[in-house]
Amino acid sequence: MNEESATARQLSADFPTLDREDEDQLLPQLVAHLREHRTRLRQEWASRIQGAHLLQAMTPQEMAAETTSVYDNYVEVLETGSVEALQHYARDLSERIIPRGVETHEVVGIVLLLRDVLARSLFGKYQRDFGLLNRVLDAYEPAANRIANTVAVSFVEERERVIRQQQDSIRELSTPVLPVRERLLILPIIGVLDTERARQLTEQLLSGIRTHRAKVVVIDITGAPDVDEAVANHLVQTVDASRLMGASVIITGLSPEIAQTLVTIGVDLSKMNTIGDLQGGLEEAERLLGFTVSRRDGTAGP
Description:
The protein is of the alpha/beta class. It contains 11 helices and 5 strands. It has helices at residues 3-14, 20-36, 38-51, 60-80, 83-97, 104-126, 130-174, 195-212, 229-244, 256-264, 278-289; strands spanning 178-181, 184-190, 216-223, 248-252, 273-275. The chain has a 5-stranded mixed sheet, with helices on both faces. It is rod-shaped. The protein starts with a helix and ends in a 13-residue tail after the last helix. 26% of the residues are buried. Residues 1-18 have low confidence and may be disordered.
């Protein structure tokens, strides 16, 4: 017998596995205890939360309502073992409290505090029978740990979803597809243009071309400080995709640095119709659409 096997046997002797029948007998007892002392335990838990300075973004009324709800669901999951119901509740909880500014560490913290408060209560009830106490804790701790893990994961997933949604909204605002006149769109790009944003830009532009039945698109990159090779090639792909949708693309606002980058990396410039500034791009777009371009002095353009 090797050393690892000996260690495993020793751990098994020190922490015997709780069989299913024992668990089925003990869980209803501890659930009944937690429900009987619900008010006192919830108040003790709320006091611990305040002492740890958690959930400070919530009003006392909101915190009382949420802690009561969390407590009742916690005990219900201990009784039923339904992870699916817990996941659904955790998502609902996250949707309510994330907009109030509650952070991930706070959610994990309050669930761990509840686990501790309930464990201490069970210890107080069964401390005179050490053997029974061990069996009760063996039934309680795996279920409590599973609840804490499920709530934490669900909260993180919901928070990531909210962050992605906010990022998408910001990107949509920062790269709006604007109809200037019939069949003419303008897409002003402001800020850093990375690969992910360039991909989203293409999606928005192609959608705008279809929605507005555009024939000409002016992409103005005056506000873009720089582009790398991947983004430059993506711009060429955007031009090609727009042509397949039936729209010509005019790119305006090329800085000397970006122009030099395009030449250096060998972008196929024959596919790109570039005009110095936005005003010139709009004039060229109107010519392509058959409109007469008039200057400010009232004379027609060439």
